[in-house]
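dude i think i finally got it to work??
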Amino acid sequence: MLFKSSLKVSLTGIAKIVAYFRQAFFSIGQKTFCFFQFAAIDIGTRIDSELGFEHFGYIGSAAVNLCGKIVHMNRFIRMTSDIIHAGVVFGVSESLDETRGVSEAYAKPERTEKAFECAQKYNFGKYNSLSVTTPDEKINHIMNQWLKKQIDCCIVGKKGVRDNLQIAVALLNYRQDKAKDEILECLRHQFQDGHAVLTWYPYDDTRYSDQPFWIIWAVCELIKETGDYTILQKKIEWQDGGAAAVVEHLKAAADCLIRDKGRNGLSRIYFADWNDALNITTDPEAESVMLSHQFCLAFRELKLLMEKIGETDYAEFLKKEYDTMRKTINEKAWDGEWYMRALSKKENIGSRTSEGSKIYLNAQTWAVLGDVVDEEKLPKLLTAVDSMEHDFGFPLNMPPYEKYSPNVGRMSGMLPGLFENGGVYCHATGFKILMDCKLGRATKAVSTLKKIMPDSEKNPSTQSGAEPYVFTNCYSTHPKYYGKSYWSWTTGTSAWCMNGLYEGIMGVKRRYDGLEISPCFPAEWNRAEMTRHFRNADYHIIIENPQHIESGKPIVSVDGVQIEGNRLPDFADGSRHEVKVVLR
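look at this
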C-alpha cells in the first residue's frame, strides 16, 4: 500500500480471509473504496463516491489472488487531512451487502482495536511454539516470521493430495492439529486400489504415480509427531465409496506401489510423477527412478511403523520388497556416475547417452533419502550433484532441452532454462538440503538453503522480481530472463526449507519414541537455539559448537542432567524443558 502523501497516517488492520469466494474488497471505516468481482482474471472495480476525502483516485494495478487470499493495490489514494486514524479492512465476501456489513462492523475504533488484539493473540499462539535463532540474521527473520505465513497460505491455496501432504508434514512442526486434519483429508481422496486424485478442487483424477508414496510418508510422520497409534484405526472414507481404517489406507498405498511396477521392476510413471511436466508419451510402461527411490523410503518407513504396532510378518514382507527394489534400481538405473531419471523403451531419460538433458537432480537426492545408493556409488553421485550447482540454487536437470521430445513430454517444450526445463527448481533444491544433512554435509546444506532464500545475495529481489520475504518455486537460468521468479507463495519450497532447517540443519527430528537431536552444523556456526512443542511439552534447545566442528557428535543434557544417546525423554507433561547440546 502506498499513500501519495507525506502526511502521517496511523492505520490498524483486520483481515477477513475466506477461501474461494469470488469477490474482494478494501474499505476504511464504513466506506467501501474498492469492490472487485472477478472470474478468471477479469477484474471489475466499484468505487464508493461518498469517501469523505477531497479526492479518491484508483491508479495503477490490482493483483488479486484467485483463491481469495490476497488483495493488493498500488498508489490509490491522496488524503487531505494531516492525520487520519482509520481501521483498514481487506477481505473477500459473497456480496456487496456482506462487504458493507463487515465494513460497518469495524468502523468503530474500539471494535477494530479489539479485533486486532485478538488477531495478534491468535497468531502469536499459532506461531510461537516453533522458533529458531542462528548466527544468520536473515535465516532467523525469514524462518521465524514469513515462512510460517507462507506455509499457512499454501495449505489454504492448494487442494491436492501430493501438495497438501508435503505442506502438512511441515505444519507438524508448529500446527499439529491442522496438519492432522489435512493428512486425514487427503486420505479421503484416495481410491480403494491405493492411488489418489491429483487435486480434489478442482477435481482432477489424472493418473499420477506418486500419490501412494506421499500418503505413506505423511501418515508415518503424523504418528511419529503425535505418538497416537489410535489414529491408525480411525475410519476414513475412500474417494470411490466406502471407508476403511487409516492402516488399511496405508496398505492399499503399498499394494498400489507394488502392483505398479514396470518391465524392469521399477515404479511406472503413468502420466507423471512428482515432476508434472515429465510426460513420457511414447511409452506407457515407462518407469520413474525418482519414484522407485521414494518406494524404498516409503517401505522402510512403513516397516518401522508396522513393527511398532506388532505386525511383524507384514513388516518383514515390506523389508523384502524394499531390498528387491533397492537391488533393482542399482542394477537397472545406475548410469556409471549418477542415476538415470526414467527408463523407457524409446530412450532412457537423464542418461549420459540421452538426447538433450543428461542428468536430473531428483534422481540423485532421493537415492540418498531412500537409502538406495551404496558406498561405492555415493562419491560419484555427490560429484555429479555438486557439478550442477548454480549461483542461486540447483537446476532440476542439465543441460536444458533445446527442442521438444515426445519421449520427455511437456518440460522439453518449455523455453530452455525455465521451470522444469533446466530452471533452478527451488522445491527440488529443498530436497537436496535434506540430502546434504543426511550425509553430514553441513556447509553445503546451509549454503544451498541461502541460495534459494528470498532476496539472496546472487539473485536479489530487484533481479528476480519475487517478494523479498517469500520462497519461490523456481528461478530462470535462461539468459533473457536470468534469475526471474515465476511462482511464489503457494509452493512446496516453503515446506521443504522448513524441514531442511529444523529437521536437517538443527537436527531435531520426530521419532516414534520421542524427539531425536542430531544437528548438522557448519563449522562456522558456534551456537544456535530453538523452541519446539512436541506431544504436550515444550523444549528449549541450545546447541553449542565450541570447537567449530562440521557435523559434530551431540552430547545432550536435559534439565541439567546428561542423558545417554540423543533421544529426548517424551515428557508430555505440559511443562517446558531445557535441552543443551554440545557438539564434539
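The longest strand covers residues 84-93.
im so relieved honestly
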